[in-house]
């Protein structure tokens, strides 16, 4: 077998065998196939795509290229939640305690911020003392004892995906449904969960800008899960405006705690309850409707808040963050305001620009090795459909002397559009794919 023959076959629209896909992926990972031939192979996939069977094989081979976590020491059905990334997306901090408080084990490996979206691990590290690195034994012990643990991705999960993604990023082959779905699901399969709830973001702040491409991605990921005897549900959610009230690490932890206390943004609450209910349903707790009621009860009675406290303490964080988040969390006291320049209604928000503005303040990173500032971020006072007057504050910027305030303000000016006619506020849940 030669790389040339496999590239030619896919370029001409042929269906690849498992042996051919394995030959290309592992040959590239092992250094036997050079970048230029793998680039040609990826470009052939970009234009010809992979069918359902090829996607399942492609995903499996990438998943098995490194460690395959065995979560069998954890009792019960393990359901993982994955978000395709967004601005202000702190759902894990609320969903995980809700689900764990209902007796469902949450064994989660999360990532860090890169690009315009935030990372759960960075947010948790805003809590003084919180450890995001645990041994596998301690990870299992915490999940069995407390039903919850969230750690950084330390295992060698899907190394083929890491190497191939870097090449895709350099060769303009990132935005192809088969390759996106295989990339995400290879890490999910390697992570060892029994079922997956996939939060697929749609809109200006998401990777998928329109509902049709988001549905296609969601369907591909659900199909891949089923082909590997896993269950999955995809929830399509709106990212045409920032999620909730805050973006930025400490600020998002503050908002998560307030949400667990029954306060805060209603759309964010709806999203958290929806994701929690689907996770509980896939874990076998009952119908989706019953699981939604149980999730609401866990939130409204304070069960989920107490589980969050237990979770923070178990990973050596300062549990007083639950009582006094504003005092415990590092939140900058220096505030700059971005104001409306005319009367009207907020008609649209370029959420990706908002995320980049947050990074200019110091809340994110461009390269993995960049340091982030947990104290900075954005507070959104007005959203799409809201009436505003000239001079009204639209966004509060929490800044430090290191923040690039001018760049952030310029991006916010480009991101917010005000029109004379009223625009309807956005629905948060757009569709469900099963």
Automatic annotation (TrEMBL):
<dbReference type="InterPro" id="IPR013102">
    <property type="entry name" value="PYNP_C"/>
</dbReference>
<dbReference type="InterPro" id="IPR036320">
    <property type="entry name" value="Glycosyl_Trfase_fam3_N_dom_sf"/>
</dbReference>
<protein>
    <submittedName>
        <fullName>Pyrimidine-nucleoside phosphorylase</fullName>
        <ecNumber>2.4.2.2</ecNumber>
    </submittedName>
</protein>
<dbReference type="InterPro" id="IPR035902">
    <property type="entry name" value="Nuc_phospho_transferase"/>
</dbReference>
<dbReference type="InterPro" id="IPR000312">
    <property type="entry name" value="Glycosyl_Trfase_fam3"/>
</dbReference>
<feature type="domain" description="Pyrimidine nucleoside phosphorylase C-terminal">
    <location>
        <begin position="345"/>
        <end position="419"/>
    </location>
</feature>
<dbReference type="GO" id="GO:0004645">
    <property type="term" value="F:1,4-alpha-oligoglucan phosphorylase activity"/>
</dbReference>
<dbReference type="GO" id="GO:0006206">
    <property type="term" value="P:pyrimidine nucleobase metabolic process"/>
</dbReference>
<dbReference type="Pfam" id="PF00591">
    <property type="entry name" value="Glycos_transf_3"/>
</dbReference>
<dbReference type="InterPro" id="IPR018090">
    <property type="entry name" value="Pyrmidine_PPas_bac/euk"/>
</dbReference>
<dbReference type="InterPro" id="IPR017872">
    <property type="entry name" value="Pyrmidine_PPase_CS"/>
</dbReference>
<dbReference type="GO" id="GO:0009032">
    <property type="term" value="F:thymidine phosphorylase activity"/>
</dbReference>
<dbReference type="InterPro" id="IPR000053">
    <property type="entry name" value="Thymidine/pyrmidine_PPase"/>
</dbReference>
<dbReference type="Pfam" id="PF02885">
    <property type="entry name" value="Glycos_trans_3N"/>
</dbReference>
<keyword id="KW-0328">Glycosyltransferase</keyword>
<dbReference type="InterPro" id="IPR017459">
    <property type="entry name" value="Glycosyl_Trfase_fam3_N_dom"/>
</dbReference>
<dbReference type="Pfam" id="PF07831">
    <property type="entry name" value="PYNP_C"/>
</dbReference>
<dbReference type="GO" id="GO:0006213">
    <property type="term" value="P:pyrimidine nucleoside metabolic process"/>
</dbReference>
<comment type="similarity">
    <text>Belongs to the thymidine/pyrimidine-nucleoside phosphorylase family.</text>
</comment>
<keyword id="KW-0808">Transferase</keyword>
<dbReference type="InterPro" id="IPR036566">
    <property type="entry name" value="PYNP-like_C_sf"/>
</dbReference>
<dbReference type="GO" id="GO:0005829">
    <property type="term" value="C:cytosol"/>
</dbReference>
<comment type="subunit">
    <text>Homodimer.</text>
</comment>
């Amino acid at each position: 077998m030669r790389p040339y023959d496999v590239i030619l076959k896919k370029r001409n629209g042929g269906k690849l065998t498992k042996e051919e896909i394995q030959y290309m992926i592992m040959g590239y990972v092992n250094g036997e196939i050079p970048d230029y031939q793998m680039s040609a192979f990826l470009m052939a996939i970009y234009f010809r795509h992979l069918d359902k069977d090829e996607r399942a094989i492609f995903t499996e081979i990438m998943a098995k290229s490194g460690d395959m976590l065995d979560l069998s020491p954890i009792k019960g059905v393990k359901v993982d939640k994955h978000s395709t990334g967004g601005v202000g997306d702190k759902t894990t901090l609320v969903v995980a305690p809700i689900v764990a408080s209902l007796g469902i084990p949450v064994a989660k490996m999360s990532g860090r911020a890169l690009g315009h979206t935030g990372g759960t691990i960075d947010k948790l590290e805003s809590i003084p003392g919180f450890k995001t690195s645990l041994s596998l034994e301690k990870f299992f012990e915490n999940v069995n004892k407390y039903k919850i643990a969230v750690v950084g991705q330390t295992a060698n999960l899907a190394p083929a995906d890491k190497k191939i993604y870097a090449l895709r990023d350099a060769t303009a082959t990132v935005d192809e449904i088969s390759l996106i779905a295989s990339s995400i699901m290879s890490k999910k399969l390697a992570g060892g969960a029994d079922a997956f709830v996939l939060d697929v973001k749609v809109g200006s702040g998401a990777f998928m800008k329109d509902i049709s491409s988001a549905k296609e991605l969601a369907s591909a990921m659900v199909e891949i899960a089923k082909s590997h005897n896993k269950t999955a549900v995809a929830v399509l959610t709106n990212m045409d405006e920032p999620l909730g009230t805050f973006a930025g690490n400490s600020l998002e932890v503050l908002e998560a705690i307030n949400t667990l206390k029954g306060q805060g943004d209603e759309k964010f609450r709806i999203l958290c309850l929806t994701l929690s209910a689907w996770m509980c349903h896939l874990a076998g707790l009952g119908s989706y409707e019953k699981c939604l009621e149980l999730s609401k009860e866990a939130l409204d009675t304070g069960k989920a808040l107490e589980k969050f406290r237990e979770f923070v303490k178990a990973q050596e964080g300062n549990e007083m963050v639950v009582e006094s988040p504003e005092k415990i969390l590092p939140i900058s006291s220096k505030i700059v305001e971005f104001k409306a320049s005319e009367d009207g209604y907020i008609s649209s928000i370029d959420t990706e620009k908002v995320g980049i503005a947050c990074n200019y303040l110091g809340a994110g990173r461009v390269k993995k090795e960049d340091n982030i500032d947990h104290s900075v971020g954005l507070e959104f006072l007005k959203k799409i459909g809201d009436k505003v007057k000239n001079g009204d504050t639209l966004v509060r910027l929490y800044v430090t002397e290191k923040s690039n305030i001018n760049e952030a303000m310029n991006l916010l000016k480009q991101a917010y559009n005000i029109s004379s006619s009223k625009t309807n506020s956005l629905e948060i849940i757009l569709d469900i794919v099963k």
